[in-house]
Amino acid sequence: MIRSMTAFARTEQETPAGIATWELRSVNHRYLEAVFRLPEDWRALEPTLREATARRLRRGKLEAILRLGPVPGQPVSLHLQEAALEALLAVAERVAGRLRDPAPIDPLAVLAWPGVLGGGDVDTEAVREALLAGYRRALDILVETREREGARLAASIRERLDRMRPLVDRARRHMPEVLEGLRRRLRERVAEAVAEPDAERLEQELVYLAQKFDVAEELDRLDHHIEEVERVLTQDQPVGRRLDFLMQELHREANTLGAKAASAEITDISVELKVLIEQMREQVQNIE
Fold first, then answer.
1. Segment (H or E) for 45
2. Is the model's pTM score more than 0.90?
3. Which of 28, 178, 183, 280 is a Cys-bridge partner for 5, taking CB atoms 3.0 to 4.6 Å apart?
4. For 241-275, how does the pLDDT look when each residue is reduced to its tens digit (9 = 90+)?
């Protein structure tokens, strides 16, 4: 299933340490990059969170934020970690003794120092499991959102593929007329310039013109690439890089078609194809 790389997810649950809120945001990125913003006491969760992320996502830049707050309506239980407080104050006094005019210590700044203020006795392991479970639920929501957006992107790409097919067919039907017109104009010019043209030389020039302006190979490759994009869209794996490569190939063939164009209609078809390909390329940049 096609997945977008842009999505948002949020979960909230009660844990022994309070209300835990996970917010996950992902945007397009060449590789998988995860940034975790965790409370100081729970930084040790990061390796486990990275493993869980790598199992669900392949590409995209992910930002995961964990917030812990009090449970509404319940009294907040806080206590000082005496050992940490004493150590912090001892260091602060040593620093103050070396200053000429030290400012008084701000109690709130002391309380904000990691490890000084605790929330009472809690079952650390229970909190850890609850936080990991909340993160996994948030990942589930994020993946579901990416899949819904991916389905929308796939539908948009298919709609443009459907508009490209008749353009390629139109160019193919028009080419015999283009080549015949070139042959006719060449014969007329030779006839005007030479009373008795060299038939063999004229035939050689006609063959050269037919080869120079023949776009059958480009049209065949456009057909092939269109069908390959359609096939890739049905795969149940990350396909963004493959689709990006196919967009480059489609653009190359459409550009060559325009460079070889021997009529205004073929030029117009080339331009229309390149517009559709560029629109698809913008969509593909956001596919995992």
1. none
2. no
3. 28
4. 999 999 999 999 999 988 877 778 888 999 999 99
The three-state secondary structure class of 64 is strand
User: What's the domain range around 98?
Assistant: 79-112
Q: What is the DSSP string of 173-201?
A: HHHHHHHHHHHHHHHHHHHHH-SS--HHH
Same domain for 157 and 135: no
* Structure confidence by residue, pLDDT tens digits, 131-168: 999 999 999 999 999 999 999 999 999 999 999 999 99
User: How many structural domains comprise the chain?
Assistant: 3
DSSP string, 100-144: SSPPPPPHHHHHHSTTTEE-SS--HHHHHHHHHHHHHHHHHHHHH
Residue 1 lies in a domain: no
Rounded to an integer, what distance in angstroms lies between the CA atom of residue 139 and that of residue 53?
8
Q: Which residues make Cβ contacts (< 8 Å) with residue 13, sequence separation at least 6?
A: 19, 20, 130, 133, 134
Residues 137, 248, single domain; the answer is no
β partners of residue 60: 32
- Statement to judge: residues 70 and 140 lie in one domain: yes
**3-state SS, residue 83:** helix
Closest CA to 59 of 26, 37, 10, 35: 26
Whether residue 101 contacts residue 50, with contact meaning beta carbons closer than 8 Å, is answered with no
Task: List the structure tokens of 260.
Answer: 């070889």
Q: Which residues pair with 20 in a beta bridge?
A: 13, 68
Residues in the chain: 288
